Every structure is written in structure tokens, then in C-alpha cells.
Amino acid sequence: MSVPRPLGEIFMCQIFHDNSGKARNSASWYLKHLIVTDLQTKKRFIFICEKWFALDKQDGLIDRKIPVSCDKQIKDVKYLLQRETKDKLSDGHL
Q1: Which of 55, 69, 81, 85 is most buried by its number of CB atoms within 10 A?
Q2: Predicted confidence band at 41 (pLDDT cuts at 50, 70, 90)?
Q3: Nearest residue to 64 (alpha-carbon basis) of 25, 18, 16, 17
Q4: Contact 77/83 with Cβ under 8 angstroms?
């Protein structure tokens, strides 16, 4: 999606779904993170969620307000992703 001017500061995003789906549990989904990039300013906003949007999982929510992640959270997630990737690569050769 594009807009005619810069987005400005984003502090929170709201994500939800209507819980519709043809098969049982097909409406359930997991959100790791969301990245919004302002194409005009090149600024990135990262929203770390790591939660289910499902009536039958975790806290049963399908509507969440997610605050923008701070630098410490982002660095922690990057470290965890790098470590997980490294572990998979080193364990994958066995």
C-alpha cells in the first residue's frame, strides 16, 4: 500500500481477523512480527507479536493492539533468529 506523504511516527498497530474459515481451525493464525517501511523516509517500524490470533489458543484473542518494538526487543529477536539459524545449519549436517 502506498500513501502520498510520509507516515510519520507510528506507535501502535491493530491487527485482527473475523474468525471465518471453511475448515476447523483454519481461522487461527500466528503472527511473529510485522514490519512497516515508510518508502519515502526509509524508516522501519517493527512490531514483535509472537502470539496466536485464535479463539482456541493462548489467550483466545483475535484482535490485538501491538506497540512498536524498542531497540532492545529488536536486538533480542535478531540474536534469537541468528542463533536458531546457526543451530539448524550446524545440526542439519548430522
Answers
A1: 69
A2: very high
A3: 16
A4: no
Nearest to 29 by CA among 61, 73, 72, 68: 61
Distance CA 54, CA 25 (A): 8
Closest CA to 25 of 62, 73, 77: 62
Domains of the chain by residue range: 12-92
Q: Greatest CA separation found in the chain?
A: 52
Taking the C-alpha atoms of residue 94 and residue 87, their distance in angstroms, rounded to an integer, is 12
Q: What's domain 12-92's architecture? A: Sandwich (2.60)
d(CA 88, CA 50): 20
Q: pLDDT for 30-39, tens place per residue?
A: 898 899 999 9
Residue 79 banded pLDDT, cuts 50, 70, 90: low
Residue in 79, 67, 83 with CA at minimum distance from that of residue 33: 67
